[in-house]
Design brief:
Number of helices of chain B: 22
Largest sheet of chain B: none
Structural class of chain A: mainly alpha
Low-confidence stretches of chain B: none
Number of domains of chain B: 1
Oligomer: heterodimer
Number of strands of chain B: 0
Number of domains of chain A: 2
Number of strands of chain A: 2
Shape of chain B: globular
Shape of chain A: elongated
Mean pLDDT of chain B: 91
Strand content of chain A: under 5%
Number of helices of chain A: 3
Order of helices and strands of chain A: HEHEH
Distance between the termini of chain B: 59 Å
Helix content of chain A: 55-70%
Largest sheet of chain A: 2 strands, parallel
Radius of gyration of chain B: 22 Å
Chain lengths: ~120, ~400
């Protein structure tokens, strides 16, 4: 059975329009849902931040009173020596004020992390 | 002695060797090609291997495993389940799951259990790319109509562009249910799975041709974290929206989302494991071998099959091109924040198409990781092709 041009055009246009409408409705829904959840998350973060501020002040206070190098527990003298040597090798007048481990939450993806992702996605 | 000779003669007369026809020999050779592709080159082996073996079984004469005449309901005849149960072979009984559209939605249940919609929820704009890539389906319908196919055949061929095997089987088994067509569900499934396996070969040249080096090098910003509550609400909302808008897409989308809800709820681990492993594997075997059985010589060794193969690759290519072009549009509107390469993943073929986006992106910038960004349009494509399937089933009479 040969199809008429108008029928074919109707199928093509209806199909494309309905698919787009359906997915645009879903975009709108997911977008609104995301905004609502972000707003909730924002409120929670604000509450947590006000609690954290007092902590940071308390931590910073001894730093100003004691100008000596602050070294976090668990970092060996050898590591401090290596860091000091690296800093000393740089041209310019640098001094180490403190040595502490970077929080994984605030740090960017490390070189090793990037290498790990590259390894596991290379097969693709 | 005469009795002995008679019995040997009778045995020879009823053997497959004497009853072998030329088209059957060709079909058996074709099944060898597909078996080779599945085993040696791992072309979608989980489905292509059972399909190819089903093709082999059905074309060996006198095996009595599959009887297409039992499913022929042309001329207003009704499907006689009693006759199928009494006189049907093993593959006739397994084929009931295809004929009654049971297997594809169950496969979607398993896919739902394995799919993470987080990249799509984090970046809902990906839905647009999933929709754009469905242009392949509808523009191929145009081509099939022009080549003289009937609406049912054209719809079945067009859905190959959705790059989704279960969807293609679901649509074609419904549209071609009355029988009497030159093509069958097996033809469509064979073309669909072959092209899905060829996604890494078909897509990259189109992606490179339609994008500039600068566009391919775009590094996209990290996606936001999606909460568990959002992941739980998503499948419920999608089911409601799609089922209300296109009810005929509900069996596919509904099962896909049920599987996803089982996974995301975190309280049905046992069901999730069964749906994505044992159940899905069992259905895959049944679906593959019974769909393969429908590829009888009269459906494959004809000029229309060649047209289906050509239209199938056109459908895939248009889908890819439409996705990439829409990606370019988004690149312009977002002032270079979207890498157009993720658009090609909108054709579904999960996760192969997303991997292709990742690979082509890394050719320009080895430090660029597009995989998660491409998974958004990729899973949107699954929803999009299910909606397109629903639209075809709503518009085309069958």
């Amino acid at each position: 059975m040969q199809m008429e041009g108008s029928y074919v055009a109707a199928v093509v246009l209806t199909g494309l329009i309905v698919v787009f409408i359906a997915l645009v409705i879903l975009i709108a829904f997911v977008w609104v849902m995301g905004k609502i959840f972000d707003a909730f998350k924002g409120n929670k973060d604000k509450k947590n931040d006000s609690g954290k501020k007092t902590e940071t002040v308390a931590v910073k206070a001894p730093q100003t009173s004691a100008p000596a190098m602050q070294i976090e527990d668990g970092i060996s003298d050898e590591i401090v020596a290596v860091i000091a040597a690296a800093v000393a090798s740089m041209s310019g007048n640098f001094a180490i004020k403190s040595v502490r481990k970077a929080s994984p939450k605030t740090s960017r993806r490390s070189a090793w992390g990037s290498q790990g992702i590259a390894e596991s996605t290379r097969v693709f | 002695m005469e009795t002995f000779i008679q019995s040997i003669k009778g045995l020879i007369d009823t053997s497959g060797i004497v009853n072998m026809t030329f088209p059957s020999v060709i079909m058996i050779l074709i099944s060898f090609v597909f078996l080779y592709l599945a085993i040696k080159h791992q072309f979608e082996p989980l489905l292509l291997l059972p399909i190819a073996f089903g093709m082999l079984l059905t074309n060996l004469p006198l095996t009595e495993m599959y009887h297409p005449e039992l499913f022929d309901i042309s001329g207003g005849r009704q499907l006689d389940f009693g006759e199928i149960l009494h006189n049907g072979g093993l593959l006739d009984l397994l084929y009931l799951g295809v004929k009654l559209q049971i297997y594809p939605p169950l496969i979607f249940l398993g896919i739902g259990c394995m799919t993470d919609f987080a990249p799509l929820i984090a970046n809902p704009k990906s839905f647009l790319l999933g929709a754009a890539a469905q242009a392949g389906i509808f523009l191929t319908f145009l081509g099939a109509a022009w080549l003289g196919f009937s609406p049912q055949e054209a719809g079945s061929i067009a859905i190959i562009g959705g790059a989704d095997g279960p969807t293609a089987i679901f649509v074609s088994s419904k549209l071609l249910r009355s029988g009497g067509f030159d093509i069958d569900t097996g033809t469509i499934a064979l073309a669909a799975y072959t092209y899905m396996a060829l996604v890494p070969i078909i897509q990259p040249p189109i992606m490179r041709a339609l994008t500039t080096k600068k566009e391919r090098s775009v590094v996209m910003t990290q996606l936001r974290q999606v909460t568990k509550t959002e992941k739980i609400i998503f499948p419920i909302a999608v089911t409601i929206v799609i089922a209300l808008l296109v009810p005929s897409a509900a069996p596919l989308v509904g099962m896909l989302m049920l599987g996803n809800l089982i996974k995301e709820s975190g309280v049905c681990d046992r069901l999730c494991k069964t749906a994505q492993n044992e159940l899905m594997n069992i259905i895959t075997i049944f679906l593959g071998v019974s769909v393969g059985a429908t590829t009888t010589a009269d459906k494959i060794v004809n000029a229309k099959f060649l047209k289906v193969i050509i239209l199938g690759v056109i459908a895939f290519s248009i889908g890819t091109a439409a996705g990439v072009l829409f990606g370019k549009l988004m690149y312009l509107f977002t002032k270079g924040k979207v890498n157009p390469l993720i658009g090609s993943a909108g054709v579904s073929a999960v996760p192969m198409a997303a991997r292709v986006s990742q690979k082509v992106g890394q050719e320009e910038n080895p430090k660029n990781f597009l995989l998660m960004h491409a998974m958004g349009p990729n899973v949107a494509g699954v929803i999009g092709s299910a909606v397109a399937a629903g639209v075809l089933l709503s518009i085309i009479p069958y």
